[in-house]
What we know:
Blueprint: H1 13-38, H2 41-44, E1 48-51, H3 58-66, E2 78-86, E3 90-97, H4 100-112, E4 124-129, E5 135-142, E6 147-154
Amino acid sequence: MPETSNETPAPRASSWRDFAALFASLAFLICVSAFLLSRIPSFADLGTSISEDDFKTNIEQIEFINRHLPEPLPTQSQVKKIRYEAWQDWNLESVVELPTDAGRKYITKIRGLEISDQDPDENTARFELSGNSLFAGNLIFDVESGILRIECFSW
Length: 155
């Protein structure tokens, strides 16, 4: 009868190395995936509350607002307020200061898109758009103060 040994065999060193390599690979993939998903705008804005303080420059603020409008704001726009909230749907309220001529031209441009029934007031524009999602908004321009109030939302 063959002799048996009571000694426990030593674990293979390669199995520990294999486990460590697998763990490191998975951790790396998770980190890369999280980074890439955070760079996609539709994911980056979900479950978010954003204000004007979350941007470094007026240009960044304008670019963010423009993603929610049918036409980009005039380049002379100065953002005074942004309130954005999102989860499944999103809601954006913004106050933008514009020179009177630029504000009137912008409102006229939006009204001319014929994307919704318009209010008789020439300083007001409405829009409803569909594409990847349905969204709508109201734009009200105060000629005296040069303030454009923006309210947009999705559903």
